[in-house]
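Sat 14:20. Reprocessing the chain from the morning session after the first attempt stalled halfway. Input below, unchanged.
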Amino acid sequence: MKIVVIGTGYVGLVTGACLSEVGIEVICVDVNVQKIENLQKGILPIYEPGLEDLVERNFKKGRLHFSTNLAESIAGAQVVFIAVGTPPGEDGSADLQYVIQVADTVGKYMNGYLVVVTKSTVPVGTAAKVKDAVSKALKARNAHIDFDVASNPEFLKEGAAIDDFLKPDRIVIGVETERAKTLLRTLYDPFVLNGHPILFMDVPSAEMTKYAANAMLATKISFMNDIANLCELLGANVNEVRKGIGSDARIGTKFIYPGIGYGGSCFPKDVKALIKTGDQNNYKLRILSAVDDVNNDQKKVIVTKIHNHFGNDISGKTFAVWGLAFKPNTDDMREAPALIIIDALLQGGATVKAYDPVSMSEAKHMLSKEVILCDDGIAAAKDADALLLVTEWSEFRLPDWEQIKTNMKGRVIFDGRNIYNAEEMKEKGFDYYGIGM
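Finished this time. Tokens:
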């Protein structure tokens, strides 16, 4: 079986590498010449644990290829995955221009039956637009070639994407014909030997499933952050509350950890896109609108705590920031709370020293040049008036507090992820501020 994956970003590269791991011939296509040349040299555009080894192994085995030539790559392919970006527009809706451009190009070059699969996160109705674009391109060349469209949303967690793809909880596929269903079942059978299901459904339902899943998870996060803020006002401890509600099987323990808001490439974009879809259909998604509002406000909670401790004038103060990526095990800084927090500190005239185990290269492009980027956490803490834990990387969980205290000017910890014990930190001589307690 030969597969073409168009787009070598996060979703496309993981998809291509994992499909090749089970023996499928995969060609990953991208218009970015430099990116393709780098991939052929083993230089990846993203950080994801295990991905570099997977790409290198399958590239050397001749199962995974990289190309800028779609016309050549598509010859003999049975399935084409569209995995290009769908960035949010100014109004929050998903920008589908790249998806439609790819569909048009596929129609121009396909030479036999294909299943054209949208892998990108796209709003309901996108597959129909893809089908129309392919049909128009075929008509323009007076070609009569059968094809099907399908929706196969990804459910990859950044930092655990390889396991998520190779050992999925479920695979969701929206199809219109038995022919497409049979082909995609054959493609995915190697990935469900763990007994987890392939869920076939109609195309619009598959498209909606992705948005609904991310919206539900985002809702749990914002709900818990709202409860955390109320706990602080009432003198309750949100960590105890979390344990109390998480033991209820109907609620569960996942995604109820309070913090400083969600970020990344999925939740913020998908929540806004779903809200916009509701607006376009004259239906206001009130709960999701509140989820988005709570999340935007939550990213500023640490800044409020800083001003409550130091006063409104923080000019001349130095703050160490541990963690820049929106979560551990990724270099992704899109919509990361660190961006909002650091910007507020700089606006207040403070000095910021920052460190992240993986995303320092990304930070050079995402942060102001005023930010001092450090080689490790100890260097960031040197001469700082306060330390901010923003991303809960493992190496921050049990640092040498005596060394940190010796290096710091102040003795204040702002823990945005509640990974430290408040009483222990106070015993070590620090003023400690967590979330929701």
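Residues 203-234 form the longest helix (32 residues).
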